[in-house]
Design a protein that fits this description.
The structure holds 2 protein chains of 2 kinds. Chain A is α+β, with helices and mostly antiparallel strands. Chain A is globular. A 5-stranded antiparallel beta sheet of chain A has the order 3-2-1-4-5, with helices on one face. Chain A has 3 helices and 5 strands; from the N terminus they run E-E-E-H-E-E-H-H. By secondary structure, chain B is α+β, with helices and mostly antiparallel strands. The longest helix of chain B is centred in the first third of the chain and has 22 residues. Chain B starts with 5 loop residues before the first helix and ends with a helix. Classes of the chains: A alpha+beta, B alpha+beta.
């Protein structure tokens, strides 16, 4: 699957294209298929997101999972500070990254 | 400490106002990210993996308690309650919101701080010896010269768009605590015939092509120092490559020209530059130097230390260094608790260090390139009280210069350039070697980790260096041995094939075991490596 990601203009937080809007949660990410470039151009033009780019991912039982570790770390948060990730209550969340 | 004059205030305030308007225009959609990016970078604002990152300059690593408290305030109010002290003696915040950046810069300006020139192809924060003004072995305090260079390089119209970033360090002791020869320009204040002058080493650096700076001029009279620096930069600015980012640093130019030809061109340029009157009049330098006057230390203060508390005595032996004034000492606060994140400190810890500086260290602190903090002027009689306060805050780890005092870049946990994580490797190594007796048995052992070839973690200069790389989407770690950023400067040599995260920790244990088996009396790890060479270590690692 193809995922579209970037950083929110105001906060810099990692965001994922849901098909209609942007979400902080990778679970909400939609497969953009071949439409990624067109969405990217429109959204960057609207200036709601910084430096958007398309990545490869796979659909798993837990939801979309980026192919590269860098994007998995972006999706979760720093592996060395579980308390600052999007899943601070899940001590095993880091396993998803590795 | 240097205090801003009206010009400093005006320059910084004008920049804050200018950048505030640029942020407003960006948020309003009036300018694109492509237009905004170079503007935010000029103000130290990066976009990293999880958020904007702000790098705040700490000139030559020197702070007072008021400034340190402001750093804590920013961590608490605008970030996630911590900051990360860096290998350029700066501090970085990892979770900054763009809309907060103007307010942060206003807060910084209120305590004579800023984030200007902490990014971009300009002269970056001038670094120096963290023990400056206190070290028993220095011939003078190098900071007035570093401050002069700071003023000269701030908004320098010729050097705001260099071929690449440019880093300068200034020291004034034979013991190099600032990795001076691994800078674009390393300046050592030296003495000759009773006069102080500047030895210029030019063309050092780490990154993908590490080089040790050759000596370009052994003695530049201090009255000519700025003109000579200007000449060094002018030759680089004219001939440094702008067509290839990987060959744009001054080290490549000097390597290709040869040190002799570069020196010839600098000397020729210097003759012209000297006629321009760049060097300040003596009265102006004296004005700057007066602000670095030594604090009023009582040389008759008791010199003995009550070592009856064994934990305190261990800390004194490892983390306290000799001061030039009797009855006083230099306290090195380790930001490397076992299993912690190298260089990170919470706002409460930053506040505590500010309080201790105000009470016990004549209001002064230093940030070190090894990502620790220094209280430079502490009475020996106060050491126990300082240690108790640090210990209660988790800041009394007695591991200065031991294997767990690891330099590590933020790595792939935070940095958009990184290929591999650095911090988890540092945590695993520190945990593996957590026994203090074992660390002390190994003695001085500088271990440095970078998460990519840009070498922010100084891995080339580690007695043991680790470089994280991306091998087909998987983190892999190359090991190198024999580097040093000190006066015995050298570059590490790669041992061979890399390892996974656990494998590199095991490999380091085999390396240290081999060292213990091979060393002779008094030999540090790096001394043994230099004597016996790579072969026995390679055999120990790979069989």
């Amino acid at each position: 699957m193809k995922l579209l990601t970037g950083n929110d203009l105001k906060t810099g937080f990692v965001t994922w294209w849901t098909g209609a809007d942007w979400s902080l949660h990778i679970e909400d990410a939609a497969d953009v298929g071949e439409a990624g470039e067109a969405i990217l151009a429109a959204e960057e033009g609207a200036r709601r997101v910084n430096a958007p780019y398309i990545i490869n991912g796979e659909q798993t039982a837990d939801g979309p999972r980026p192919a590269h570790i860098k994007d998995r770390i972006r999706a979760l948060g720093p592996t060395v500070r579980p308390d600052l990730t999007l899943k601070p209550a899940d001590p095993a969340a880091g396993d998803w990254v590795i | 400490m240097y205090k801003y004059d009206e010009y400093d205030h005006a320059m910084v305030d004008a920049r804050v106002a200018e950048f505030s308007d640029q942020v407003r225009r960006r948020l309003a959609g009036e300018i694109t990210e492509d237009q905004f990016k170079p503007l935010r970078l000029m103000n130290g604002l990066y976009l990293q993996l999880h958020a904007y990152m702000l790098r705040v300059a700490v000139p030559y690593g020197t702070l007072d308690s008021r400034q340190m408290r402001m750093l804590a305030h920013i961590a608490r109010k605008y970030d996630r309650d911590y900051g990360h002290f860096t290998t350029r003696q700066n501090i970085q915040y990892n979770w900054i919101k763009l809309e907060d950046a103007p307010a942060i810069l206003e807060d910084l300006a209120s305590v004579e701080m800023h984030a200007i020139q902490t990014s971009g192809n300009c002269i970056r924060n001038i670094s120096s010896d963290q023990w400056a003004g206190a070290a028993a072995d220095e011939i003078t305090d190098p900071r007035p010269w570093a401050e002069l260079l700071r003023q000269w390089s701030s908004f320098h119209p010729e050097f705001s768009y260099l071929p690449r970033k440019f880093k300068i360090a200034v020291i004034a002791a034979n013991e190099d605590r600032a990795a001076m020869r691994l800078h674009d320009i390393g300046i050592q204040i030296v003495e000759k015939d009773g006069q102080h002058g500047a030895a210029f080493y030019v063309g050092g650096g780490m990154g993908r092509t590490p080089m040790i700076a050759p000596l370009i001029k052994d003695f530049v009279p201090l009255d000519d120092m700025l003109s000579y620096a200007e000449a060094c930069l002018r030759v680089y600015n004219r001939y440094g490559r702008r067509d290839n980012i990987y060959k744009a640093r001054i080290k490549i130019l000097i390597h290709e020209l040869g040190a002799d030809e570069y020196r010839r061109q600098v000397e020729e340029e210097f003759k012209h530059v000297k006629s321009l009157g760049i060097d300040p009049p003596k009265a102006e330098f004296d004005r700057i130097a007066a602000q670095f006057a030594p604090p009023p230390l009582d040389a008759s203060a008791p010199d003995a230390i009550d070592r009856s508390d064994p934990d305190f005595a261990v800390w004194v032996d490892q983390n306290v260094a000799a001061h030039k004034v009797s009855g006083h000492a230099i306290v090195n606060i380790s930001l490397k608790p076992i299993g912690g994140i190298p260089g990170d400190a919470s706002s409460a810890q930053i506040d505590l260090m500010a309080d201790l500086a105000e009470t016990y260290s004549h209001d002064e602190l230093r940030v070190t390139h090894a990502q620790n903090i220094v209280l430079p002027h502490v009475r020996k009689a106060d050491l126990h009280a300082v240690w108790q306060a640090l210990d209660a805050a988790g800041l009394a780890t007695p591991n200065l210069d031991l294997i767990s005092d690891i330099i590590a870049c933020p790595g792939l946990d935070y940095c958009s350039l990184a290929n591999a994580r650095s911090i988890p490797v540092a945590q695993k190594i520190a945990t593996r070697f957590s026994d203090l007796g074992r660390q002390k048995e190994l003695g001085e052992l500088k271990l440095k980790i970078s998460g990519c070839i840009n070498a922010c973690g100084h891995h080339h200069a580690g007695h043991i260096g680790i470089l994280g790389v991306d091998r087909k989407g998987t983190e892999n770690y190359q090991l190198s041995l024999g580097g040093s950023g000190a006066e015995d400067v050298s570059l590490g040599t790669i041992t061979g094939p890399g390892f996974d995260e656990d494998g590199v920790v095991d490999a380091i244990e085999r390396v240290t075991d081999k060292y213990l088996a091979e060393r002779t009396e008094g030999e540090r790890f790096v001394d043994t490596f230099r004597r016996v060479g790579m072969a026995p270590f390679k055999e120990a690692i790979y069989g």
